TrEMBL record:
Annotated protein name in UniProt: DinB-like domain-containing protein
Taxonomic lineage from the root: Bacteria, Bacillati, Bacillota, Bacilli, Bacillales
InterPro entries xrefs: DinB-like, DinB/YfiT-like
Species this protein is from: Paenibacillus albilobatus
One Pfam family, short name: DinB_2
Domain DinB-like positions: 18-150
Superkingdom of origin organism: Bacteria
Length: 158
């Protein structure tokens, strides 16, 4: 059975508590690869935060303001490489605080929307379909993927 918009928002929101718990990790573990050949925890959270920022500014906020959605299909590898570079310029706390800022902005803007606004399809910057429901569906699974990696890492260092 398909999840309701409320259930999806709650699931999307649940990642906030998970990330806040990571504030207790020391900088050494925060900056170490989460497994052989993988990114650091800081890189992963920076990556998630910057995707949230992008989709907020180019999608969710535009919908809220009644403007055209400008989300485009980006080159993932390039975007992610830039996220890793950005992480090098930030502290653990600043990355977490930025994550909280953008995740909360998204949640604030979509909480309480009528169901039809969740499923409404907008044309994005590439003239493809964009919906809040589709965005949430994609990023909840993205969060789960990274959460599993991070949990495995945390278990390995305890």
């Amino acid at each position: 059975m398909a999840k309701t918009s409320l259930e999806m928002v709650e699931e999307f929101k649940s990642f906030i508590d998970f990330v806040q718990e990571l504030k207790t990790m020391d900088e050494e573990h925060w900056n170490s690869p989460i497994s052989e050949g993988k990114w650091s925890l800081k890189d992963v959270i920076s990556h998630i935060m910057l995707w949230d920022k992008y989709f907020y500014e180019e999608g969710i906020e535009k919908i809220k303001l009644g403007q055209s959605v400008t989300v485009r299909h980006l080159k993932f590898d390039e975007f992610n490489a830039n996220a890793r570079e950005y992480a090098k310029t930030q502290t653990r706390d600043s990355i977490i605080n930025q994550f909280l800022e953008y995740r909360n902005k998204i949640i604030d803007d979509i909480t309480g929307l009528p169901e039809e606004d969740y499923i409404k399809e907008y044309k994005d910057g590439d003239r493809k379909k964009f919906s809040i429901r589709g965005y949430l569906r994609g990023f909840i699974s993205h969060d789960k993927h990274h959460k599993k990696q991070i949990e495995k890492y945390v278990k390995s260092i305890q």
